[in-house]
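hey can u run this one w/ adenosine-5'-diphosphate bound, need the structure tokens asap thx
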Amino acid sequence: MPTKQPKNETTTAKATTAKAKPAAKKTAAKKPAAKKTTAKKAAKVEAPVEEKVEAAPEPEVAPAPAPEPEPAPAPEPMPEPRRSVAFIGSECYPFVKTGGLGDVMYALPKALVALNCDVKVIVPNYGVIKPEWKEKMVFRGSFDMDLCADGRSFYVGIMEYVWDGVVYDFIDNEEFFAGGNPYTNLVDDIPKFCYFGKAALAALNYMEWVPDIIHCHDWQAGLVPVYLRTMFADTALSHAKVVTTIHNLRFQGKYNIPTLKYWSNLPDSAFNMGALQEEWTEANMLKGGLAYSDLITTVSNTYAGEIQTAEYGEGLDAHLRHHSGKLRGIVNGIDIDIWNPATDKLLAAPYGVDDAIEGKKANKLALQKSLGLYEDSGKFVIGLISRLTNQKGLDLVSAVAPGLIDGNTQLVILGTGDAEYENNFRALENDHKGEVCAYIAYDEALSHQIYAGCDAFLVPSQFEPCGLTQLISMRYGSVPIVRETGGLKDTVEPYNMYENTGNGYTFDRYESGLLWDAINRAKTLYFEDRADWDRMVIRDMEKDVSWKKSAEQYRQYYLELTQW
Ligand code: ADP
Ligand code: GLC
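ok here u go:
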């Protein structure tokens, strides 16, 4: 699939005035051919009746009357009214994913479609998107868009793919997106996401698709609300309400004001202390986006509170306190079709609640075998799957890991990231061959096998806006051991030995001694009271970690914003 389209397909439309061009031709070509079905039907009708009678042998005993067919369950009525939403963000599973944002950009739109929303997801058409996906995309149109202060303009192509009721529009531009990974360094990323924010809005205008809600995700979409209320204020799009979701406040898209002014060409009025400006010389894309949004959400209730404090506010706590009236927390879910141990084709032995204990044993042995660990289903296997950055509490893990390896315990780490952590974990594996595996890579299939094959799962984060790995591990019956922060606090109920309730082990302060203690409490139950441990495994698998409730909450907020 060529990235750039021939000149004659390009309209020289300026950003805000881009006109829609019919893209019907190419899309229609992808529609399923109706012919074959008609031919089959016709063949059925024309089959000679005599032949059928001859072929049927006389039954010796009169067959029992066919049971009344069960009436198909009535489909749940769609909630009214319908709302249209454009999701704008920098990654989306399965096309491109570096972390949980990618999961959410895939699963939440799907859940919203089931709640009578019309959803478009707008993401960059990165070079790293695999050909199998690129081949499915259909060219929807293109135009040139003014971007920079000196009038430099750039090509914007729109490649479209419709899947499971969600429309994915990929913004195509080789200069910005061909380079591979979604994020490289701020020198490249600032211009890239200035371009992306404006191109996403220009693309909506071009397609003449005016959503009720424009839903932006993280700093990479930070300029969208700013553009919407300034340079796009006179377009039909300004009718839309804008929501920004903070997935991770640590990343904000900060750069010096002259550079951001040059690339965005946004009016000076947007560069004030209440919006894009921060300190004397700096501009902050997320800060601006939050100021211009009608609603700010973040991915758990606890994180919504935490980010208004100096400890977790990453320098934006005062700004967030100022906007606290429009700040809400909605906890993430996971896609329970993709993450389903009963149907997961990547597992050695899929399992459900009924055969979980045996199933998990089989997966543990398969995992140990594939990673070169001692094969013994009696060992306590601890998993960790993470970006290797200081957010994730890896210093605590490094501090306790050597002491954990006591002959009964194994540790499996899957992750990539900072060289310091990668090397520490490689060295740990080297010192404990057969008991520790540090698999330094991004590997989707192995992640499924670890979720299934381990007994306990570590998420000792310094901060965690929501966290998806603890949700996935519960779904796979691996007991989470987490620090009580952000979404970890909101989703993992501590085990209560007196009432036999709870889903995992938790600790509060960021101290290795407390992580050590939590892991040992887990080990004690595992080795000394397996029946209660197994009950917790089942409770975890039965916990509702789907998107259902949270998608409903998003929908309610969309409705509150759009009472027209
Ligand atoms: P974050 O977004 O901060 O990285 P989350 O817990 O929200 O953390 O989401 C992480 C997602 O990325 C999960 O789906 C997890 O399984 C996946 N993941 C993280 N690291 C890897 C890896 N090395 N290989 C495969 N999947 C990974
Ligand atoms: C971020 C956060 C993580 C959250 C994810 C999806 O990357 O670090 O906690 O689960 O976004 O919202």
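Residues 99-101, 104, 247-248, 299, 332, 464-468, 487 surround alpha-D-glucopyranose (ligand 2) (CB under 6 Å). anyway lmk if its weird
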